[in-house]
Design brief:
This protein is of the alpha/beta class. The chain is built from eleven helices and eleven strands. Helix 1 runs parallel beside helix 3 and helix 9 packs antiparallel against helix 10. It holds the Pfam family ECH_1.
Length: about 270
Amino acid sequence: MGERRFGEHVIVRRPVGGQSIAELVLDRPTAMNALSTAMAGAISDACTELSTDRSVNVVLLSSTSTRAFCVGADLRERNAFTVQDLARQRLLMRAVYGGVLELPMPTIAAVHGYALGGGYELALACDLIVADTTAVVGLPEVSVGIVPGGGGTQLLPRRVGAARAAQLIFTGQRVPADEALARGLVDVVVQKNEARARALELGATMAGHSPVALRAAKRALREGQGVGLRVGLDLEDAAWRLVASSADRTEGIAAFNEKRAPVWPGE
């Protein structure tokens, strides 16, 4: 399908690298991808379209800015906001982060430079975060009189535990890449300018697998967080039963026994 622009500051490319990968690109480099109302709406629209695209097995979230993945909300725009303006924008912002979080296929954030506040929360909404050595992550919202509102207070504790999340959120600390890796704030760190390439490499491996299995596994992983073990195992069982009755399961086993690459029906 090539490249499609959503609004002025969001690009979706698909397929990427000849694979069933879509790339959602943040493209407001002059503002280090600060999330304006218009840009947030474009991200939400892009996620809505991607969520129903059965040709996409993996989504990569990246940036055209040389200095940042995303620095969070556009505070210059918000400087003139009334409380009513903020309330209206809030509905849209929830749709943005929910849109990324609820994408049914695996998602990978390719992070370089600053990923702060709502920018880091966009990365947290993805399944994996690949960062390069220039990356700096953090949730500094309390320093400007607000709290993380893109899922940070909920997603970060699920990633690193409540105490470590509290330390980051209460201090507003900015954490460089190597320390972020050690603390579990990102999943992979690579050399400068290599985050996108490594994310695409991971995405290509994922995209070669069964679309049905990928989506079912993601659902079980996501819905199983924060529930009891018994409920989690029931969710896993539901995912297993779904794929067991799929054409992908039939093709996967046949391909294994015939020693050939599978051709996934994706049904």
